[in-house]
Amino acid sequence: MKKKKIETIAIHGSMKTRSLENDTIVPGIEVSTIYEHRNGGYQEGDDKYIRHSNPNRDQLENVIMELEEGDSCAVFSSGMAAISSVFQAIESGAHVLVANDVYFGTRKLMWEFAEKWNLEVDFIDMTDLDLVGSSLKENTKLLWLETPSNPRLLITDVKAISKLAKKKGALVAVDNTWPTPYNMRPLELGADVSVHSTTKYLGGHSDILGGAVITKNNEELFERIRLVQRVQGAVPSPRDSWLMSRSIRSFPYRMRAHNENARKVADFLSKHPKVQTIYYPGLESHPGHEIAKAQMTDFGGMISFLVEGGAKEAIKIVSRSKMIKAATSLGGIESIWEHRKSSEGDESPTPDNLIRLSVGLEHPDDIIEDLEQALAD
Ligand SMILES: *Cc1c(COP(=O)(O)O)cnc(C)c1O
What we know:
Helix content: 25-40%
Low-confidence stretches: none
Bound molecules: pyridoxal-5'-phosphate
Number of strands: 12
Structural class: alpha/beta
Number of helices: 14
Radius of gyration: 21 Å
Shape: globular
Strand order of the largest sheet: 1-7-6-5-4-2-3
Oligomer: single chain
Strand content: 15-25%
């Protein structure tokens, strides 16, 4: 059968239930924590206990796996739990390279836990391929990156990084939360692991927390991730799994509109006199534009920009919006923005005057009107 398109996968990938005849179309929420033995005890593949498996979780894992074009997926109760599982699946004593412009939580995870897990970590600029090449060591087992990165939307060439890593036998993991499988499929580009905070675009309504890890052609690695999921138990509830699957069914259409609205907002911001620099890979002036064009379907819904007047002015501008909410996080249907450094704290390398905007699905004219009045003095 011909490969289904992403809109179709998003709808049908989580609709599968176990019984075949006269079944519900939409799967129900299965809340039982325990399952009865068959005559003669449990059989291979049977559900036994909810931490181990649950039908709603299976449905969610299946749809995300298909969206990412992987062959295995494990979902977690948060993006951070998903990220942690990958670092914990790496052998003790390994060296790992982490992009220096990553989600603040990932950086904090390394600061707080790498030593405990006996991982040697170097933070480097992953967009610099020569630097990546010379930073690989004999015991480098994992390269971790985001593209577009958070919050500066730096673009990293996933194919080129994967080639470099493969030569040394190291794995490449891409946090695909920002581009989403609608705009980029890291496994297709040669990465070994794709990771999500499903809290963001896949959930899409700022009302569910979740994470996912997807792999392809690496059962050994996946089994270790599965072990972390089942033994450490940071799993989503049946209700959260069900709601996440429900949200994902309309995700490709939401993503198209996020892409479209962000393009219009970026165009407006790039011409505004108060905006010093704009970070949005869809603009030809962005240094990573060509690579982004080659590895992504579209450029996503996130924009960061630097404003004249430093931190004070940036905080003031954010406080002046009427519709756009001042809040952290991203990927919801409502537009939100924040002075990023205030969220990340003083030790963060994020510029003082950076505002991060998650462009929502309101009419783009209304978003631009609000930006216009907030930026006016
Ligand atoms: C939000 C986010 C995370 C963390 O996910 P949680 O669901 O909040 O645990 C990780 N990576 C990126 C890129 C994010 O935006």
